């Protein structure tokens, strides 16, 4: 059997390696009409004839004319049967990354049941990078290009040895060696000249595809099938454009395809991706990642039934799966959506892939070669699937482009002056820069656009020169460059015209505290784009992605004070984490926990089943700033919360700064809200102005819904008249048990032994803790009070205030039992009991903490254990106060209160509720 490829045109170089180098002056002199202005020639010898020949003796360009004649005569013989019988498959670099993978591709091609198929292959993975690297090295006169070229040779040689045998192998190796020798000579020339033109680079870079196509076609032939190998430089004719892109010439390419097919007719064709020729037959490429585009052009030329793009992921994801682990595969995308996704950086598809196939309604299917069971993503006309499940498509996915700069041209002289925009973009076009996004304020005072960072210097210079006069006359105030930007695009059919979508997008960004530099919305119906700081980009991507319910609400948590309450919270989180993920899409990740001495940091989340051991074994020296930075500056979780489980005012003093940085704060620590009024007001103002949340339910009544009840009443327009309650679990216990003939000191002792009191019971008996709760509720109700404004009736007898130790205090307390016993007696005489309460008298704008008497049937008199009870008297609840009652102290309930604040935060951030 004659090898189909033996008739294929070949573009070989004169044997440069044998040329004396000093004869090379410029590269153009070496390749005048040969390589760079080559014309198709045909290697009219079969493989065996090639063997043993001196490579410099064949493929001479003198043979061009006769070959052309041969070709033209053949044209009419076999016509290309265009249409549905053809399927196009494209295999990306990773699909052909190793010999096993190439073998696998061959078997997929062989098994494919299409009547006819054209298979476009990329270079083996990394090979194109290696080829460009050779050029860069040679240009930089770095000798190591020689060893780098050896590595390229070795990679293909060993792959071929793995895959081929006998004649097939020899033929391939001969070609490989010949190509490598020529490349060596060419690179040597580039090395001497210190420069490579684009055509030279394109010629070198395209070799990876030539070799992989040759290998794949040989293997397919090994299975007994006829298979032609197409060097697409003979068929695909493209015109270079100014912006590093090429435009296919479909008419000329179609003509050349007919010619080629008449000489190489076969039902299986393996074609090189990426490479093409200019109309002058100069080798060129479709630019990086261009093999997808090659496949689409082939699809259009063959009018194929379908183009399948095989790659290493299950399809087009709702966001780059390397950046958003929760991204989901999209089953269907419209051509426009796919185009927008790829244009804005989803490199799973080359952006220009869509245009050729769209014209003929040829669907593209993206499939994973490593997961054949995944159906992949189908890209087709919207009308083909829009009514399938009645879904209204809004946001489909998100993509990002990095390394951009924004240029902002501003000035009052721009408003209403026709031609300003065209002058701006004319200047940009003159420097050949690619404008990726434009946004113009409706006031016409500024035009803002994004260009690749590497082009911004030239753009700014061109604009400054173009508008020199306007700038000096003050008509333009400035041409500002904002470097280090990224674009984040949300893509979806009609999303820009669907009410609410943009608002949701922007609020998700605001909630993640991401500053938007520019917005372009509505320029196409399919996308909304925002420009953000580059360092915020991944975070922004995750925030918006999760907001649109495409992934879980993920919150990075930093826990301060893993003691009794913090430790209990961590244990509760551990128990509940899986359920939250499963049922509510909430993913809580503890990225750090810190005590006063040591802290534990983790990138992905501390394993909560072993946090105690890890803290002990892997803990590092506590450092609050480092801790906060670690938890907040991770680039993959959009929201951060710090949970302060201490009672420390120095920790509370950080809240303002944290909230300002966009960190949410949840705490049972009373110190911030009961500290200096001015600081409290600053904190609340900041919280109201930003999208950052500050929740502190645990500060009053542990997990009981006291703050939230109060807030709910206020927000719905009720007027608070008075709040009265037993706010201390300890004092509740003490007075609930201070009955009959029992001495006060005896009950305090019992409470202490049962663990109800602070280590020094005076901390409870002094009433300051209750006063802090009163002040928190008073301020929440709108009163501007300081802690010192609250009169506190202390239960610590004056002489015992300064007794040094708790033990001594306990020993002496009995001496003062008399006073309280008397008060109890008096109360009992009128059917009353003593209760230690806090009162917020909103009407008279004051608060008190004192021992009061209540009728035995009053709800406060009927408490048991250490329960808290709080009564809200309001305009709505005037006759019968609204009462909240229940356990108001203890690690379990306090941690539970903190936990429910965390979940409230998650639902504010978008978790389903
Ligand atoms: P090939 O070599 O097969 O052409 P590419 O590396 O060019 O493969 O494209 C596939 C890669 O694109 C995936 O491995 C994935 O990391 C990346 N990618 C970026 N954005 C997306 C997206 N939205 N969906 C799927 N893949 C994406
Ligand atoms: N091999 C080329 C590249 O890496 C083309 C492609 O793989 O799409 O850019
Ligand atoms: Mg690709």
From TrEMBL:
Protein name: Bifunctional aspartokinase/homoserine dehydrogenase 1, chloroplastic
Top-level taxonomy: Eukaryota, Viridiplantae, Streptophyta, Embryophyta, Tracheophyta
Keywords of this entry: Amino-acid biosynthesis, ATP-binding, Chloroplast, Kinase, Lysine biosynthesis, Metal-binding, Methionine biosynthesis, Multifunctional enzyme, NAD, NADP, Nucleotide-binding, Oxidoreductase, Plastid, Repeat, Sodium, Threonine biosynthesis, Transferase, Transit peptide
Pfam families referenced in this protein's UniProt entry, alphabetically: AA_kinase, ACT_9, Homoserine_dh, NAD_binding_3
Stretches assigned to the ACT domain: 409-478, 490-567
Cofactor: a metal cation
Function: Bifunctional aspartate kinase and homoserine dehydrogenase that catalyzes the first and the third steps toward the synthesis of lysine, methionine and threonine from aspartate.
GO biological process: lysine biosynthetic process; methionine biosynthetic process; threonine biosynthetic process
Organism of derivation: Salvia divinorum
Amino-acid biosynthesis is among the record's keywords: yes
Gene that this polypeptide is encoded by: AKHSDH1
Lipoprotein among keywords: no
Reactions it catalyzes: L-homoserine + NADP(+) = L-aspartate 4-semialdehyde + NADPH + H(+); L-aspartate + ATP = 4-phospho-L-aspartate + ADP
CC terms in the record's Gene Ontology section: chloroplast
Pathway: Amino-acid biosynthesis; L-methionine biosynthesis via de novo pathway; L-homoserine from L-aspartate: step 1/3; Amino-acid biosynthesis; L-threonine biosynthesis; L-threonine from L-aspartate: step 1/5; Amino-acid biosynthesis; L-threonine biosynthesis; L-threonine from L-aspartate: step 3/5; Amino-acid biosynthesis; L-methionine biosynthesis via de novo pathway; L-homoserine from L-aspartate: step 3/3
Subcellular location(s) of the protein: Plastid, Chloroplast
Any GO molecular function: aspartate kinase activity
Membership in a protein family: In the C-terminal section; belongs to the homoserine dehydrogenase family. In the N-terminal section; belongs to the aspartokinase family.
